[in-house]
Amino acid sequence: MTAIPTSMRAVVLDRPGPPESLQVREVPVPVPERGEVLIRVEAFGLNRSELHTRLGLADGVTFPRVLGIEAVGTVASCPGGELAVGSQVAALMGGMGRTFDGGYAEYTCVPVRQTVPFASDLPWATLGAVPEMLQTAHGSLTIGLDARPGQSMLIRGGTSSVGLATAVLARRLDMTVLSTTRHADRADVLLDIGVHHPLVDDGDVAAQVRDLLPDGVDAALELVGTPTLPDTLRATRVHGVVCFTGMLSNQWTVPDFYPIEYLPRGVRLTAYGGDATDLPPAVLQGFLDAVAAGEARVPIHRTYRLDEIADAHADMEAGRATGKLVVLP
Fold first, then answer.
1. Hey, which end of the chain has fewer CB within 10 Å, N or C?
2. Which helix (H) or strand (E) is 324 found in, with range?
3. Domains of the chain (ranges plus CATH)?
């Protein structure tokens, strides 16, 4: 068993600010109590949630803070014995990177309930891209949309990491997938991941959808946010479902919401925001096994080292990524 050091490198945010506000420092390695697990971090993915925190848009965050709502690695210590030392584990959500220090570090300490065990020989960069992306895509499809095989689906914000992951899962459900991008040169990315109908977002996606499906789609996933939500609702059939999951636009609320005027007749609007418990170990393991067998893909845009965290955040904020951004500490 490898000895646990007393100090580690971590990305610390003292206060909201630009990407350069993320500082790599030497800090103490946290010491887990019973009910917690110390994880040696091998990789972590970047998420819009962390961008919101860095910009000062997130509620309930105290500073200084080590950001990061997810990480993958190996168990270094687990006082309660719930997880075996050396086993592989994903950690996500539950206050990580907001109310307590998260995954932007060489080690992270989280409640055991926020972990999902797995076993895989896939590269750590691939594994690091999966947990939050899969949990959000899976939860949106199952809890948010109650998606069924053979249905049609629109993904608004399709070249985001969650959008691409949702397309992969929807294809595995034999759904007909329509997905949007603001950039025509990214349509090939959508085709490559299995999207049937890439749509360039011109502000009137509903018209494009109804040219293909006159009655509208059965299900729609809104990842851009409130600016595009009315158009997404108009693209959905009577008794179809729209799930509001993402806020790539950083616009969270609908001012002066009047439901009868806002919602098309008979279209159902729901929302999804999840936790580690929404990603059962069997679902994570099954997806990783499918990736290893070549039956599913993990959309990764680029990997970074810990010292490149400011560059990674700048790329995320500028929307330069088509897929997941992953950091290898």
1. N
2. strand 324-328
3. 7-130+299-328 (3.90.180.10), 132-271 (3.40.50.720)
